[in-house]
Amino acid sequence: MPPTDSLRIMLRLGLLVLCCLYGVLADTPAHCLFEDIKGTWTFQETERSGDNTLNCDTLGPIVHTKNFTLSFPNTAMDELGNEGTWTMIWNQGFEVNINERSYFAFSYYEGDFTSSTSYCDRTFNGWSRDKTMRNWSCYGAQKNTPVRARKSQKLTTPAEKLAQKYKNDEKMINDINASQKSWTAKAYPEIEKYTVAEMLNRGGGPGSVLPYPPSPAPASEELKAKISLLPDNFDWRNVEGVNYIAPVRDQGSCGSCYTFASMGQVEARLRIATKNQRQDVLSPQDAVSCSVLSQGCAGGFNFLIAGRYAQDQGLVAEECNAYDATDSACDTDTSCARTYVSDYSYLGGYYGACNEELMLQALIELGPLSVSYQVYDDFYNYNGGIYHHTEFKNDFNPFEMVNHAVLLVGYGVEPSTGEKFWTVKNSWGDTWGESGYFRIRRGTNECSIESMAVDITAIP
Ligand SMILES: *[C@@H]1O[C@H](CO)[C@@H](O)[C@H](O)[C@H]1NC(C)=O
Ligand SMILES: *[C@@H]1O[C@H](CO)[C@@H](O)[C@H](O)[C@H]1NC(C)=O
Ligand SMILES: *[C@@H]1O[C@H](CO)[C@@H](O)[C@H](O)[C@H]1NC(C)=O
Asked: Which EC main class describes this enzyme (predicted)?
């Protein structure tokens, strides 16, 4: 059973409380690495006659058997020598694009976040369709050489600690303020309404077991030369006086940051493409409740929502499925028009190819990028300035590092110190940080923010 469906069934059965108290569900527990996935695979595919409502819970009769060889860094090749591309999505699964078709499936695992075994040489049932989004099929993939099963254990925070109320730590805030001048922290009394588990959800959902994404790839000399000609400061909220960014929102206690980052990216790209004639506010709830490519309030990925879901199924306006911050059943108004993207990719072409220079170029030439980064406990109390992770810890709450998705809208250089920064739209309401935004150190892959930016092309 695909992970999303098993999760949805758990949720329907009312097991949500159980899973969130244990804080063990976020993204999927699969932990598969590039080395596990590269190699030759056999894809077994059903008849190519479905549409985007195709359900792949069960595979059905196999009509096509294809062998694809996936090699470094992103080349896919079939038995006939036809070439395509592929990419990992974090440690969760992989997408293959070849012979005018696109395939995506989650890597296979058993267990949950506290204790799981990943079988990286096979996938859950996935979805395949042609480049024009027609002729859908289901498939399952098996690698032709076995990969040793990987056991993952996670030291999870005890349930009673996750259930306790989150508390601001004045000492940590003072220490941050006193120890450095780049950024300031402050107490947010309003976040004490959340439990520790809910705060972890706000930060991205309890992290998957991949501790760090890949380091940024080196930039070419040619790209560096191009970048040197860009302005020192740029911000899509003020391009010669014009704002292309939709208002900041608040994700509440649901681990849905990736849907807010994704909607924010498509909203901004629509505004840019139409010179603000279209000012959509899109529905994160639709992606939370209806997408088989996400884990709802337990996490997901920009690549799969701003990218693949927006291409496969399209996005709807907020009023077609108003945000409720829960794993509610999918009840999107089917009469609503859907907005699609025609293209999506990790910057540089695949997961692992990103860097600051590519991000600068794409940000300014194409528009806001959805990104993700590691959230430590000092970040929740960010007040203003240019964030970098400090060593200070909140002594009241148990620590779990989580991975948060957000929208990059600008960059600059602080004149007094020369410190370079990114400007980023968060989804924690407009009273948090710098009117809902934060700045974070640029050029040093701070908290891995330069490791996996996603680009899309929205169709206005
Ligand atoms: C594509 O789908 C249609 C039905 O939707 C079917 O008639 C056709 O044979 C399919 N094409 C391929 C190549 O399977
Ligand atoms: C695909 O790979 C499998 C396993 O190595 C092999 O048995 C099969 O003949 C291959 N099929 C094609 C079409 O190359
Ligand atoms: C830290 O500095 C910020 C900004 O100057 C201020 O708002 C906040 O109250 C300070 N907090 C503490 C505990 O010193």
From this structure: hydrolase
